[in-house]
Amino acid sequence: MSQLSQFVREKRKQANLTQEEFAERAGVALTVVRKIEQGKENLNLEKVNQVLKMFGHVLIPANMKDPSTTTNLQ
Known about the structure:
Shape: globular
Helix content: 40-55%
Order of helices and strands: HHHH
Strand content: under 5%
Number of domains: 1
Structural class: mainly alpha
CATH architecture: Orthogonal Bundle
Number of helices: 4
Radius of gyration: 12 Å
CATH topology: 434 Repressor (Amino-terminal Domain)
CATH superfamily: lambda repressor-like DNA-binding domains
Oligomer: single chain
């Protein structure tokens, strides 16, 4: 499982939310949460960031990486 999918699944479960409840709170479709947790590779970065913002994180493209503004999901 990818770091992203594992991170989101663990955080969602820690919050004691179903995928549906989490998607609603994050403001995304249920399919977005499912795709992230399944480790799908073709994801919309904007939607992924909507989900990650629930935990105080965001992802940026590698070519824009600034170590002072990124968070490692490990």
